[in-house]
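Entry 14. Structure prediction run on the chain below.
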Amino acid sequence: LDSFISQLNMDRDILFVWLRTNEKVRLSRKEKRNRDLADTKDHFEFVDRRYPDIDSINVKNGTSVFIDTSAKTVQDVVSEIKTLI
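Output returned:
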């Protein structure tokens, strides 16, 4: 992300909002969406293996905020993001 930000040539503050939830809730939401093959369990497991501790992601050229959406409605999450910007 830092490499991407450095190429933007912008004099702006960058806010990264990471939405996260536990595996059980994430899989339940995927099943309810019944969207497409991008939401397969294999894809989720790949991301979990690639980033086992998402809190360790450090963006030097921006601010990162992690929001646990496990027990929040969409409206709750949107309101929380609005307070950040």
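The beta strands are 15-20, 63-68.
Filed with the rest of this week's runs.
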